[in-house]
Amino acid sequence: METRFIQLYKDNFDEAIQTAAEIIANGGLVAFPTETVYGLGASALNEQAVRSIFTAKGRPGDNPLIVHAATMAEAFSLARDIPTFARELAQKFWPGPLTLVLKKNKTIGDAVTAGLDTVALRVPSHPVALALIRASGLPIAAPSANTSGSPSPTRAEHVLHDLNGRIPLILDGGACEVGLESTVCDCTMDRPVILRPGGITAEMIQKAVGSVSIHKAVLGQYKGKAPSPGMKHRHYAPKAKLTLVTGAGAAFKICQLYDESIASGIKTAIIGTSENDSTYGSRRKMLLGSRENERECAKHFFSALRQMDEAGVERIFAEGFSQAGMGLALMNRAIRAAEYDVIET
Ligand code: TXA
Ligand code: MG
Predict the structure, then answer these.
(1) Which residues contact ligand 1 via a Cβ below 6 A?
(2) How far apart are CA 55 and CA 29, in angstroms?
(3) For residues 150 and 31, what is the distance between their CA atoms, to the nearest angstrom?
(4) Could you read off the pLDDT of 292-326 as tens digits, one per residue?
(5) Lower CB count within 10 Å: N or C terminus of the chain?
(6) Whole-number percent of the chain with pLDDT over 90
(7) Ligand 1 centre and the CA of 67: distance in Å?
(8) What is the pLDDT of residue 229?
(9) CB count in 10 Å sphere of residue 278
(10) Is the dihedral of CA 151, 131, 55, 172 positive or negative?
(11) d(Cα 139, Cα 182) in Å, to the nearest integer?
């Protein structure tokens, strides 16, 4: 299959959205930008189309998808037994990087939810995502538009790299603003439980509805029945082996590990923050931004992993982050990218 790649401008926007909407309405797949990461969309009401998402990504069939709608009313029409706190969260944070897990109603089929009786719903804020949902007149099921297991795509070029020849269309709307996937919040209990941290932080949810808990799998390795099937799959991993180094002595430890690795003839690199630039000196490095600005660091994390792959790096040592605010989302992705290989200093 040939993959069309359309860079969006003011002049071609409406026509490109129309083309994309027709593909979706006819059961095809379209990759499109959201404020978090690029999504690979299909009509959420077409089981066969939804199944083809799993094939294109090589995604395990037991990992359910997020359904994207253009308004809160449209999103909630797909759910039932919606608690007041979920309505309050939607009111406050939609459109935006928050996904709510709710009891599903009958319109949503088993392919989307992987057989669960819940559905994950999100109203994205990106103008391209909203325009596509509106033009297709359908709820759009969309996981991140990467090959399953690899870092999520934050630019259209990342999607092309992973899915060229496997999908009919990629809409290029530039780099994603948040750079990490949405916060997934389970709303089927008596209070919100964060299953995956993201741009809407635990602190923001706590402030909005007065309570929140963070699932223990967010920073740990989960054994047992995962409430969010995505938790148990290998994730975000670059080709290189990555070790995460946390704590006050991280930069010095990273230099030591880097030097040892280089001495054994391994192509090695560092992912760090600008505060430690001079400590790393001339070592091969990728700086995400300032530690003081974790949103900036989050925005560049996945693309840094991809750049390391492009450069043929075999070994990466990365700095850890705080576990508050956006730092929690960064740590959640970094720990998985490291496949739980964490050194505390
Ligand atoms: O920002 C995002 O959320 C992006 C953009 C495209 O919207 N999408 C995304 O989708 O990251 P995906 O499929 O890569 O991640 C969806 C996560 C998975 O961890 C999945 O297990 C979880 O949401 N999930 C989906 N439905 C669920 C459900 N019914 N119950 C619990 N977890 C669910
Ligand atoms: Mg994903």
Answers:
(1) 34, 36-37, 39, 63-66, 97, 99, 101, 113, 116, 118-120, 122, 124, 142-144, 181-182, 184, 195-196, 228-230
(2) 11
(3) 16
(4) 999 999 999 999 999 999 999 999 999 999 999 99
(5) N
(6) 92
(7) 9
(8) 67
(9) 8
(10) negative
(11) 17
